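quick one: guanosine-5'-triphosphate bound model?
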Amino acid sequence: MPANLTPAYLSAEKAFRAAKTTAEKIAALEEMYATIPKHKGTDKMRADIRRRLSKFRQAAQQAKGKGGVDPFHVDRHGAGQFALVGMPNAGKSALVQAVSGAHVNVAPYPFSTHGPVPGMMPFEDIQIQLIDLPPVTDDGLVPGMLGAVRAADGLLVCVDASAQNLLEQMDTCLAVLEARGVVPAGREPPEGGAAMTMLLVGTKIDVEPGAENFEALGDLRPGVLPMLATSAETRQGLDDLARTCFEVLDVVRVYSKEPGKPADMERPFVLARGSTVMDLATEVHRDLAEHLKRARIWGSGMYDGQPVQQDHVLKDQDVIELHD
Ligand SMILES: Nc1nc2c(ncn2[C@@H]2O[C@H](COP(=O)(O)OP(=O)(O)OP(=O)(O)O)[C@@H](O)[C@H]2O)c(=O)[nH]1
Ligand SMILES: [Mg+2]
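yep, here:
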C-alpha cells in the first residue's frame, strides 16, 4: 500500500466502509477517486475504485428502474438545465429566486440550501431550468451532488463579487469540480470525467465594490470562463444571464405550422443547433416524420413559403410548414 495517502482519502475510505446505501457508497467512492494521489503507485487502486464505482452506479441505475429515488434527481423541463455551483452565501438561492420566482431558501447565513431546488428562468418565448444546489466547500461536495452537477447542460459558477475572497471562491469551485473530473468546456477531461459549459456569475454587484472587484477578477484571470455580473437585488445583469444561457445551450427555436393555419408562435420546439426539417417532424409527431412529403419555410435568408428539403438545417426562429 503506498504510504502517501492523504487524510482526505483515508476519511473517504472510512466513509466507504461505513456506507450502508448504494448512494452513500457511490458518494464515498467518488470522494476517494477525487482525493487519491495520482501517480504510478496508485494506478491499480484507481482502476479498482473506477471498477467499484461502475458496479455501484449500475446497481443504482437498476434500483432506480425499480422505483428507488435519487434525492438529487430533478425532472428536466424547458430548453435546458443549468446547475448553480458556489461557496456558502454566494447568492445562488437569491439568484434562482430573482429570475424564476421559485421558492428557495435565501438566508443571511451559509449552508441554507440542503437539496436541489429547480426554478424556471424565462428567456423570450422559452424557459431555461436552473437548479439551486447546496454550497461547495474546501471539503468538496455534499454526497450525491456530483450527479446533479453532471446531469446539467451547463454550470453557473457563482461568486460573491462583493467579498474580499472573490478569486479564492472561483478557484475553490473550479478545483473541487476538477478533482471530480469536471473541467470547463474546451479542456480535455480526465478518463470518466466531463468537460462542461461553465459561466462565471458574479453576484451582489449592487454591494460596493462588487462591480469593480468582479472586473478586476476578469483582468487577473482573463478568459478562464465567460463572465456575467449580476445582482438579485437590483436585477442588473439578469436579462444578460438568460440570453447567455440560451446562447451557450446551442439550440434553435422552431415554430411548426399546419398547412392553411397560422403558425403556433406560442410554443416553439427547441432543437439542437444543426437539426433538420426531418428532426423537427420527428419531434412534432413520429407519424408525421414517416409520412412527410413536403415542407415550406418562413425564415431568415429565404423567401416566404419557400419549399425546403428534409435535410435542410434549421435556424433559430424559423417557421416550418409540414405536409404529410
Ligand atoms: N445586496 C445583495 N444581497 C444579496 C444578493 N444576492 C444574495 N444576497 C444576500 O446574500 C445572502 C446569501 O444569499 P443566498 O442566496 O442564500 O446564498 P446561497 O449561495 O444560496 O447560500 P447557501 O445556500 O448557504 O450556499 C442573503 O442574505 C441574501 O439576501 C444581491 O444580489 N444583492
Ligand atoms: Mg442557498
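The two ends are 67 Å apart (CA to CA).
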